[in-house]
Each structure stands twice: as structure tokens, then as C-alpha cells.
Design goal:
heterodimer, A: 247 residues, alpha/beta, Rossmann fold, six-stranded mixed sheet, four-stranded antiparallel sheet, 26% strand, globular, B: 288 residues, mainly alpha, two-stranded antiparallel ribbon, 11 helices, 2 strands
Chain lengths: 247, 288
């Protein structure tokens, strides 16, 4: 393994295999995240990125492999128990509660009352516009605003690790910038982040470590500084044998 | 004056139908369960009251204090132990299971209590009334409408103002997303079932004060409940009250022409709404 940023082991995924019927969506994928670390998973559509995050969050059952969180084996935990432990997914497509107001959406994040640094006031500090639009239905917000609410809702559960599934999907560059500008603060507070993105260049700027998936298998692993963009792209599209994992 | 009277009686009757409809709407809105035993649960509540009143010496009017909480607890565990298991198998299984529950309830009541009509004796209250400018206002009908309004307002308050109620709405919107903020959706389904069971138990008590019930009464009120839900617009609590009132008025107005027409007109209105306003008169996307 390459040099790691300091931090304790937080999330440890070992040899995860997931099937959707006949299709093997993930094949023996392992990934780990430490406190205060951003680990990115890149790959094309259908590479298994979302399946990986959803399995870690407990929405899919793996046929093989294990997920440990804070040294506890949580492979058999239902999704809500994982949130209780501090492992929280911000799902692809935001998935806000359409009939709830912005504030009510945020308050669902406080349902479990896990104590911690995040409360409504801090969220409103981070995104001041939210306080003004708190009474509006969440469905009336723009895509970027919805993503901010989805992220805040997850933060209000006071997670120890965040799983972010394509937060940039459908966002304008400005909105995207705003979402990503929050990352350093999260990481600084010790939250571990497992980030899934399609945009490799974006990921290279924020990730401490990176893993590329190709058709459900690990194709490449490394630290952003140690990888050439061509090398990543080759693994991403499965162009050359050379790209198959050597890390 | 006859028409004014029929109109007012019909509106008052709306509360009773709304109590039948509220739980159906909740069960479908939150977990997409169509509970075919809904009417039988109301009848079972009436029978429990018939047993409890002489045992406890609680006046029939106040027996809901025992029966409604008992049915809320029963609703919660009925969902967790029976409906949830069928939900995990798929929507058709749920229909079959609730249909089976309906058959079982009816036959148990028939076996234990025979097919004789039963009613809750509330003394002189059953026939008491006062009149305003010639329009007769029976105390019992006003009481039932009042109970319905209080029950609907309580459910509304719970869903919109409490933490658990908010989460019930969240689960109805997007079950998976609710799990991702830590909701145990089975528990929240149980809460919704408790509300459904509690309100329909209240409906059963009101019905057995208003008229008589027997083990086979349930399905016809299930149908009225469905009609009120569809007319009012699925998922809207206050819509079901208005739907119930439309049904009630159709019934009393129709009876002016002919008693049989009074039984038929509500269904004609129901059909007309389905044909021309399939989403109901007061459509709403979400529950509450």
C-alpha cells in the first residue's frame, strides 16, 4: 500500500461480491476508509460504483465478503442500524422527501438523535439560503440546492463516515463547486468520506486515495499524485491489460 | 325543509364514513396495503365494547377509552407480525392475507356471538335531538361528527407536527431514503397501522351506537370507506371527510326518493367520480 494520511481505520470492506440475479455487479471488491480521509471510487456507468455504496449502506445483501465499521462487523446490519452506528449514504439522485418542506427534510436527519457537532444552526451557517427557504417544499429547489439539502440531511445524523454517490450528477459547475467546498471541513472534523464519481479530474483534486472499478472488478488503485491521468482513463475504459491492478 | 333536513343528516353522517376511510387511506398511503379486513376490525371493536361495557360498568359513550388504545396496540402488532410478512412476499399476498383476516374475523364473531344484531346501548342519547329552524339535529350524529373531527385532527397533528409523524410521511414518500436517515420502516408502518386500527375502532363504536352491527356488517362499510377515500382523493385526510360527507348526503338525499335509491346513490356518485375525476375531488400527492 502507498503512504496513508494519518487516521484510524474506520470502514473496512473486504472481498465484496454482489449479484443482481444472474449478473455479478461486484466481484471481490475491497476498500477501506480511515478517519479524515477521502477515498474515491471512479468508473464508467455500470462499473458497480453505486452497487458498492448501496451494499455498504445495507440496501443490497452481498453474496460474499464483509463490511466492518469501527472494527465491528456490520455485514448483517439493516440500513437503519448502520446509520445508528454512524455510517450514512447520500444516495444518487438526492432522494429528498418530496412532500416534506426543506426544514422537515433536514429534521429527518435528526430522527435518531445521535449527538454531535451538527445541528440545524450549523447547517444554516454552511448554507445560509436554506434558512430562508426552510418552509418551501423540497421539490421546488434547484438540483444544486437539493444536493445541498441531501448532504445536510446526512450531516445532521452526525455521521462518522459519509458515502457520497455521484454528488455532482446534474449540477452546474457553480453548484458543484459549492458542494465540494464543504469537503475539507468535513474531513477536518474526522469524518471519513467514500466518494463515487464519474468525473476523474474532479476526484483527483479532492481524493487522498482512488480506486477504479471496471465491470464490477477492481481495475486500478493508487494515490492521485502517483497516477497518470492516461493510466486512470485506461483502467476506466478497460483499454489495456497493463492497467489491471498492481497497487 | 325536507331537503334541508336530508342535507344536514347527510353531512353529519359524513363523519362516520370519514372514520372508516381515514385508516384505509393511511394504510394505502404509507405502505400501499389495501386492508380488506378494515370493516371487520370496526365490527370487532364494536363487539369488544358490547362485552366490556357490562364488565367494566364504563358508560358506552366512554368505552372508547379502553377499546381504541387496545385496537391501536393490536393494529401495531397486526402489522408487524402479519401484514409485514405478507408485504415482504408482494402486494398480491397482502390482499390475500387481509382477505383471509376478514373471513377469520367474521367467522370468529359468528361463532362466539352468533349472527344476531348487536348494538351499544347509550340510553336516551340515541333518540335525543334539538332543532334549529325546523332542521333536526340529533345529539348522537353531532357527537359522532365531533369525534370524527377530533380524531382526524389528532392524526393530522401527529403526522405534521411530531418527529415520528414526520418520519411516517418520509417513509411514505421514499422508504429507502428514510432508511438512509435511520428509520426502521417496519416500526413506522406499525405506527401507521396503529392509527388506522384506532380510527376504525372508533368508527365501529360509533356505528354500533348509531345502528346495529352483526358479524357480516364489515364489508359494506369497507366499501363505503373506499368510496369516501376515492371521492375525497387518496391520501388527503380532510378530503376523506369531504368524501364521507358527499357519500352521506347522497345517501340521505337518495332516500328521499326511495330507500333503495338511498343505498344506491352513493355508489353512483362513487362511479361518477371514478369516471370523471379519478384522482378524487381533492387530490393530494402525499398523506396528511
Amino acid at each position: 500500500m502507498t503512504e496513508e494520511p494519518q487516521g484510524r481505520e474506520l470502514l473496512e470492506v473486504r472481498d465484496l461480491t454482489v449479484r443482481h440475479g444472474q449478473l455479478v455487479a461486484l466481484h471481490e471488491v475491497s476498500v477501506s476508509v480511515r478517519t479524515g480521509e477521502v477515498v474515491a471510487i471512479v468508473g464508467a456507468n455500470g462499473a458497480g460504483k453505486s452497487t458498492l455504496l448501496r451494499t455498504i449502506a445495507g440496501l443490497h445483501k452481498p453474496t460474499q465478503g464483509s463490511v466492518s465499521f469501527g472494527a465491528v462487523d456490520i455485514t448483517d446490519y439493516p440500513p437503519d442500524q448502520r446509520v445508528r452506528a454512524g455510517l450514512v449514504l447520500v444516495p444518487e439522485g438526492r432522494r429528498l422527501f418530496a412532500s416534506l418542506s426543506v426544514e422537515e427534510n433536514l429534521l429527518t436527519g435528526c430522527y435518531l438523535k445521535r449527538g454531535g457537532a451538527w445541528d440545524l444552526a450549523r447547517v444554516f451557517d454552511l448554507f445560509p439560503w436554506m434558512a430562508e427557504r426552510r418552509r418551501q417544499p423540497a421539490s421546488q429547489l434547484s438540483g444544486g440546492q437539493q444536493q445541498a439539502v441531501a448532504l445536510s440531511r446526512a450531516l445532521l445524523t452526525n455521521p462518522r463516515a459519509l458515502l457520497l454517490d455521484e454528488p455532482s450528477l446534474g449540477l452546474s459547475p457553480v453548484a458543484l463547486q459549492r458542494i465540494y467546498s464543504v469537503l475539507p471541513e468535513l474531513v477536518g472534523s474526522g469524518i471519513g468520506v467514500l466518494l463515487v464519481e464519474q468525473d476523474v479530474r474532479r476526484v483527483l483534486r479532492v481524493a487522498d486515495r482512488l480506486k477504479c472499478l471496471l465491470e464490477g472488478r477492481e481495475a486500478l488503485e493508487g494515490v492521485p499524485g502517483g497516477l497518470e491521468i492516461e493510466e486512470i482513463e485506461a483502467a476506466y475504459f478497460g483499454i489495456s491489460e497493463r492497467a489491471v491492478t498492481s497497487a | 325543509m325536507t331537503y334541508a333536513n336530508a342535507l344536514v343528516q347527510g353531512l353529519l353522517l359524513g363523519g362516520l364514513f370519514a372514520l372508516f376511510a381515514c385508516g384505509l387511506s393511511l394504510m394505502f398511503g404509507v405502505m400501499e396495503v389495501i386492508n380488506l379486513a378494515h370493516g371487520d376490525i370496526a365490527v370487532a371493536a364494536a363487539y369488544l365494547a358490547v362485552v366490556l361495557v357490562p364488565l367494566t360498568h364504563i358508560p358506552a359513550v366512554w368505552i372508547f377509552v379502553l377499546v381504541v388504545p387496545a385496537f391501536m396496540v393490536g393494529g401495531y402488532f397486526g402489522q408487524r407480525l402479519l401484514i409485514q410478512r405478507s408485504l415482504d412476499e408482494g402486494p398480491v399476498t397482502t390482499l390475500l392475507v387481509t382477505f383471509g383476516l376478514s373471513v377469520v374475523l367474521e367467522n370468529v364473531l359468528l361463532e362466539v356471538f352468533t349472527g344476531n344484531d348487536q348494538s351499544l346501548n347509550i340510553g336516551s342519547l340515541v333518540s335525543g335531538s334539538f332543532s334549529v329552524r325546523g332542521v333536526i339535529l340529533p345529539y348522537l350524529s353531532i357527537m359522532i361528527l365531533g369525534a370524527a373531527l377530533v380524531a382526524l385532527a389528532a392524526v393530522q397533528f401527529f403526522l405534521s407536527r411530531t418527529k415520528t409523524g414526520r418520519m411516517v410521511r418520509a417513509v411514505a414518500d421514499d422508504r429507502e431514503a428514510a432508511q438512509l436517515v435511520g428509520a426502521d420502516y417496519r416500526h413506522l408502518f406499525g405506527i401507521a397501522a396503529a392509527l388506522a386500527s384506532g380510527t376504525v375502532a372508533l368508527a365501529g363504536l360509533a356505528l354500533s351506537m348509531y345502528t346495529t352491527v352483526n358479524p357480516n356488517t364489515g364489508p359494506s362499510y369497507l366499501l363505503y370507506g373506499f368510496a369516501a377515500v376515492v371521492i375525497g382523493g387518496l391520501g388527503s385526510l380532510w378530503g376523506t371527510l369531504l368524501g364521507g360527507m358527499v357519500l352521506g348526503v347522497a345517501m340521505t338525499m337518495g332516500s328521499l326518493v326511495d330507500p333503495d335509491f338511498g343505498a344506491m346513490l352513493p355508489y353512483l356518485v362513487f362511479l361518477a367520480v371514478l369516471a370523471f375525476r379519478p384522482r378524487g375531488l381533492f387530490p393530494k400527492k402525499a398523506i396528511a
